[in-house]
């Protein structure tokens, strides 16, 4: 007669399996470096730009025709205002602060900008920027980026004047932000007016420049 073998019961004293180790979260400076290297390695199709805003790489297309018209009208008007000064209005520049690159729609910077170029030549340091402009693009994420996330980013970098031209705020508004507080990431002073009302730059190289309906177009219906 053949005996049947039975499995031995598990011992009540058998040690439990060790829990899997939870990977250690990267430190903020390590994450900044990872994002920075990823941004530098990106190859984007023509018509797209990439920025690092509050811990994320954001890829977006260049603006629509109405967006480009406002930027071009504003740049031409600012160029006339700044003529003969040490400053100029520029666009399509990378602005870099603490390994965070941004691509504003328009900036006012010194004409002699060599000392503000980053060592790798990828853009200008935020210290060069006297005024920055964003023309808000359609879409909830784009609107939040320019109204909130970039507002905090530019304030943290200490950029003196931030102008937001916003087709999607009520019937169109211009907001002029000044007195940045880098530690808090906010602007202490803000003036917001509807399209059709003059918005004056109160300080810096563009002091006295007025953003009018000739730049923004009329109040939107």
> Gap between N and C termini, in Å?
98 Å
Q: What is the CA-atom radius of gyration, in angstroms?
A: 25 Å
The structure class reads alpha+beta
Helix content range of the residues, please? Answer: 10-25%
Adjacency order of strands in the biggest sheet: 3-6-8-9-10-11
Count of beta strands: 13
What series of H and E elements makes up the topology? HEEHEEEEEEHEEEEEH
Quick one: overall form?
globular
Mean pLDDT: 88
Strand fraction band?
A: 25-35%
- State the helix count: 4
Q: The biggest beta sheet, please?
A: 6 strands, mixed
Would you mind describing this structure in some detail?
- With 221 residues, the protein is α+β, with helices and mostly antiparallel strands.
- Helices cover 24% and strands 28% of the residues.
- The protein is built from 4 helices and 13 strands.
- The protein has helices at residues 28-41, 65-82, 140-156, 213-216, and strands spanning 48-53, 56-61, 87-90, 95-97, 100-102, 106-110, 124-125, 131-135, 161-166, 173-181, 186-194, 199-200, 210-211.
- The strands form 4 sheets. A 6-stranded mixed sheet has the order 3-6-8-9-10-11. Strands 5-4-7 form a 3-stranded mixed sheet. The protein has a two-stranded antiparallel sheet with strand order 1-2.
- The termini are far apart.
């Amino acid at each position: 007669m053949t005996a049947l073998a039975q499995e031995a019961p598990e011992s009540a004293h058998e040690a439990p399996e060790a829990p899997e180790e939870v990977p250690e979260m990267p430190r903020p400076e390590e994450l900044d470096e990872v994002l920075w290297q990823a941004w530098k390695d990106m190859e984007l199709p023509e018509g797209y730009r990439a920025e690092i805003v509050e811990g994320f790489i954001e890829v977006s297309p260049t603006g629509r025709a109405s967006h480009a018209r406002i930027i071009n009208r504003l740049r031409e008007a600012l160029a006339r205002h700044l003529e003969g000064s040490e400053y100029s209005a520029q666009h399509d520049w990378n602005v870099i602060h603490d390994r965070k690159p941004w691509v504003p729609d328009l900036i006012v910077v010194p004409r002699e900008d060599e000392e503000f170029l980053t060592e790798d030549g990828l853009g200008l340091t935020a210290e060069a920027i006297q005024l920055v402009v964003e023309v808000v693009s359609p879409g909830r994420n784009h609107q939040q980026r320019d109204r909130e996330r970039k507002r905090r980013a530019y304030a943290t970098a200490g950029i003196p004047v931030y102008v937001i031209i916003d087709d999607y705020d009520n019937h169109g508004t211009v907001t002029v932000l000044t007195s940045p507080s880098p530690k808090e990431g906010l602007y202490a002073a803000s003036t917001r007016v509807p399209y059709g009302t003059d918005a004056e730059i109160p300080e810096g190289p563009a002091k006295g420049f007025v953003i009018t309906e000739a730049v923004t177009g009329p109040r939107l219906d």
